[in-house]
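Fig. S4 source data, part A: sequence.
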Amino acid sequence: MMKGIPVSRGIAIAKAMVLRTEEGHHEIKSIQASEVDREKARLKESVELAARQLTELEKQVKETAGAEQAAIMQAHMEFLSDPAFVGEMESKIAEQLITAESAVQQVAEQFIMIFESMDDTYMRERAADIRDVSKRLKQNLSGEAGGGLADIKEATIIIADDLTPSDTIQMPRQYVQGLVAAKGGATSHAAILARSLGIPAIMGIGEEGLNRFKNGDFVIIDGATGDILLNPDEEAIRQYTAAQEKEAARKQALEQLRGLNAETTDGHSVHLVANAGGKEDPAELLEKGAEGIGLFRSEFLFMHRETMPTEEEQYEGYLRAVKGMQGKPVIIRTLDIGGDKHLPYLDLPQEMNPFLGWRAIRISLSRVDLFKTQLRAILRASAHGKALIMFPMISHIEQVRQAKAILEEVKQELKSEGQAFDEAIEVGVMIEIPAAALIADDLAKEVDFFSIGTNDLVQYTIAVDRMNENISELYNYFHPAVLRLMKMVIDASHRNGIWTGMCGEMASDPLATELLVGMGLDEFSMNQNSLLEVKQRVRSISLAEAKEIAEKALSLPTVAEVQSYLASRVNEA
């Protein structure tokens, strides 16, 4: 049995089709100076054709996978209009006297290297988007059609070194049963699309794992566990076929939960809300059962552009979410940028340790002009629905007080201008630094709510860079120290009459649901596709039982014991 990173749940059983992209050294072809204009014109035609192709593909994705996933194609189009991307290709044609194909290859390799060197998972996995866009440009230049995926006519599991979003969306869904890739992870765009399309997928098996497959091998993959069986025996096939049927019945049962409350068997309610990056369709979130947006990542309004978004541009982005959620809460996190996430129009320093550097609220408080513009836009949008403000990366009470003072200044300015806004808008902070958890009682007196950001809280508490493959197995939100910090935060909030939510990956993990309910978590914010599964777990247990589970789990000394105990409880249900 092989093991990879589980990125899209489900069991697939079929023959393998092995695909490899052509990477490595590419011959650089020279041209004469008199041919520069011709090559630039060829590049321009390729870019324009790619834009038309992506527009058409965006429509296709929206129809099959939804508006949130269609935004992936928008991100690709933004690369095509980025002067630092296409402009650099034009420069190389003229300066190095090389063909358009060679320029595309050189620039793509530079960008891929930059993105893959970043610490942030999301940014690292954008390298696959660069591969996708450059592959499209090169195919347009050569006049070649895309690979042979469209020719698949039988049940198949795709085995590839890498999967691009274009590959994933254009696969014939009736035949492609599953996906396995040497590269990529849970936050890659291909993984996001696989989840939306309901295709079981496993990534990160590495080059060595990929080399074990050949065309025609019989393969079983379990997208929930990351298990891969190569040429299994008859007994394994029988077991996984039965599991596949059980999984289909489980999905059908989940659909019956739409419209029902996230309520325990003894009547205790929690709120299930969605994470959003700015381009999701609010109507789709509501249709999926979201009771609001628990994390609106405002930084997505600032990225993939050459200038700072104006107040009006930000206002339109916030307004769309606030009005679209029809009175349900929308928690807008103020700009969380810096360190390894660079904006070309902000003079951010290169730092030795970006996760401990100048980022998030630290930038906002030192760039008050930028901060005020964002707060003005959020406040104006709050007049049209229920918006809340959340400050990220809080470590000191002084930061909260300073941010609130600036917010009050902005309120007074808007009042003097006759601008409408919610004067009682709620303000919260993210708890993602251990220092914030340890002073939670004091912080709770300053704000209206907490939101636990588990991704960073784990990283800071255990001192583990989850992108460092040598120690990545140490990164785990079931670490007893992390759980005890979370419990401290939740208890402190309730003692002081406020509520606590969670917007990290842990909120969407069904293994953690009963534990978090028992710990007293009030709100779970997650990817929209996880809402029904978490709701099912909430509705399967009483609050009294959940409290017993939490008490037991919090007493255990190791990650393995916590996970084993929680798994045993889930299996009993």
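Fig. S4 source data, part B ends here. The chain is about 50% helix and 15% strand.
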